[in-house]
């Protein structure tokens, strides 16, 4: 488990600081399977996880939903046959907060269980 996954997710608030490009690159080194993408001008973290079938992908999504509810921070999740694509960004600040990197690391932790 990486150092990032040990962090706790502070509630997202309008005005919280976004992570700049330099910091993002440093944090990404701790979650190397994630990509930095931009959708409609909003930077986001994305990773696709592979599963043996649809039911296993759906179960992963449901477990991630429980973590998201507990943290009060929610991802985009696209479940397809054999895969789940997870996207983290902070809606409130239309970009990436350090919390998104924490949540990405926690998502990796869930997958690696
Ligand atoms: C009121 C509620 O806590 C907020 O709307 C939370 C819910 N979950 C959230 N999740 C994410 N990813 N970004 C947010 O800004 C966000 N805000």
From TrEMBL:
Record-linked CDD domains: PCD_DCoH_subfamily_a
UniProt key word NAD: no
Pfam families linked: Pterin_4a
Keyword Lyase: yes
E.C. no: 4.2.1.96
Catalyzed reactions per annotation: (4aS,6R)-4a-hydroxy-L-erythro-5,6,7,8-tetrahydrobiopterin = (6R)-L-erythro-6,7-dihydrobiopterin + H2O
InterPro entries in the record: PCD_sf (IPR036428), Pterin-4-alpha-carb_dehyd (IPR050376), Pterin_deHydtase (IPR001533)
GO molecular function: 4-alpha-hydroxytetrahydrobiopterin dehydratase activity
Keywords, comma-separated and alphabetical: Lyase
Gene3D superfamilies documented for this protein: Transcriptional coactivator/pterin dehydratase
Xref: NCBIfam families: PRK00823.1-1
Family named by the database record: Belongs to the pterin-4-alpha-carbinolamine dehydratase family.
Name listed for the protein in its UniProt record: Putative pterin-4-alpha-carbinolamine dehydratase
Organism this protein belongs to: Psychrobacter namhaensis
